[in-house]
Design brief:
This protein is α/β, with parallel strands linked by helices and about 375 residues long. It has two domains: about 230 residues, P-loop containing nucleotide triphosphate hydrolases (Rossmann fold, 3-Layer(aba) Sandwich), CATH 3.40.50.300; about 80 residues, Arc Repressor Mutant, subunit A (Orthogonal Bundle), CATH 1.10.10.10. The chain is built from twelve helices and 15 strands. A nine-stranded mixed β-sheet has the order 7-6-8-9-3-10-11-12-13, sandwiched between helices. Strand 1 and strand 2 form a beta hairpin. Helix 4 packs across helix 5, helix 7 packs parallel to helix 8 and helix 11 crosses helix 12. The N terminus is likely disordered.
């Protein structure tokens, strides 16, 4: 048939629409759950996002910001709870405490909660009253204390989660005894669950949570798998230690901060039972003498080799942040307690001596460091 006549013929082809086909045409499948989650998680590179609000500064350095959690670690009786009182007082009254701890919660997030899982009710009340005395406020309406010692780990976790999601205008939370929210401190699954909870709570509500955890008796590391997991995810990690030259003095220093480390400071308990800054305390003396004096060039080359061999024992390639973290952990295990800035000096020194080599593409996720086996 000629094409001109074919073009005039009515269209005869029919599509046999089965019930399944009709359902797919008129009721298209919904977006798969994982695809929805992936789309929600995508970071828009065209939008300027505001920086997190700083809720607490220490000596001008950002310590606690909205949407993150931090850790306070120390051995038993190192006065961790006294230092917690100072942090709480700073955000309760939104002002400076001890001269260098500056609280600054936004007006719409002025509520503060203190969860105590370790002490009895009497001592929980005593700690809360210390917060009031430090803040200079008789009864602030934005501060509540809860004692959870009598409950089991699972019930404590359930109560805390309920309180966090049902407290209007919440801004800052302290969990004094994060270990008591899991049944085993060395259970990797529970440690991962706890860190995931903290990350979820803080991000969804834009709050900050300060967790308190004991250090191991034999070293300066936070206890168990839980301590390791939380240290890896925390925005800031502070340690509290007693001064080796004066047992009445406690030293607060930055183990890790995303912002610049603040200078260590010391406090003691005054005649009123409140923490007070030790004026003219020299961080280069006493308990910090080894920390301040240590320089990479002062360490014997064999010790450097041992450090690097241990650092790269688990993985032959490390990102910069992983390298800094592993060097710090190794130095701590060797009894050489140093801050993050000092660790970075070690890393720079290792590069200058070509004991470690940088590979990959500079400024990208592929940049990494490896051990130079020829020099180590």
């Amino acid at each position: 048939m000629p094409l001109d006549k074919l073009a005039k013929q009515p269209f005869q082809h029919q599509v046999n629409i089965t019930p399944d086909l009709a359902s797919s045409v008129f009721n298209p499948p919904s977006t798969p759950p994982l695809l929805r989650l992936l789309q929600a998680a995508k970071v828009d590179l065209e939008v300027e996002l505001p920086a997190p609000l700083v809720f607490i500064r220490i000596s001008g350095s950002a310590f606690a910001t909205g949407g993150n959690f931090s850790m306070l670690i120390g051995k038993a009786k190192s006065r961790k709870t006294f230092s917690v009182s100072a942090f709480l007082a700073s955000v309760v009254k939104n002002s400076a405490v001890l001269g260098n701890i500056q609280g600054s919660l936004p007006e719409e997030q002025r509520e503060v909660i203190f969860f105590d899982t370790e002490q009895g009710t009497y001592h929980s009340q005593k700690s809360a009253r210390r917060v009031l005395r430090l803040s200079g406020l008789e009864r602030p309406l934005n501060f509540n204390t809860y004692n959870l010692r009598k409950h089991g780990a699972a019930k404590r976790l359930e109560i805390i989660e309920f309180a966090i999601y049902n407290t209007p205008n919440l801004g800052f939370v302290v969990i004094d005894g994060i270990r008591d929210l899991v049944s085993s401190i060395n259970d990797e699954e529970q440690a991962s669950m706890m860190s995931s909870k903290l990350l979820k709570w803080t991000e969804e509500l834009n709050i900050h949570i300060l967790c308190v955890l004991h250090q191991n008796k034999g070293d300066t590391n936070a206890r168990g798998h839980l301590g390791t997991e939380l240290q890896n995810k925390a925005e800031s990690v502070l340690s509290i230690t007693k001064d080796t030259q004066n047992n009445e003095i406690s030293i607060v220093e930055a183990e890790y901060c995303r912002d610049k480390d603040f200078e260590p400071f010391a406090f003691q308990i005054d005649e009123c039972g409140l923490p007070a800054i030790v004026e003219h305390w020299n961080s280069s003396k006493g308990g910090n003498e080894r920390r301040q004096a240590l320089m990479p060039a002062d360490v014997h080359v064999d010790m450097h080799k041992g450090i690097l061999e241990k650092v790269f024992s688990q993985s032959p390639e490390l990102k910069y942040g992983e390298l800094v973290h592993q060097v710090k952990l190794t130095l701590d295990e060797l009894g050489t307690k140093v801050g993050t800035n000092k660790v970075k000096e070690f890393v720079q020194w290792y590069q200058s001596k070509e004991m470690i080599l940088k590979g990959g593409i500079e400024g990208t996720s592929k940049a990494h460091y490896t051990l130079n086996s020829k020099l180590v």
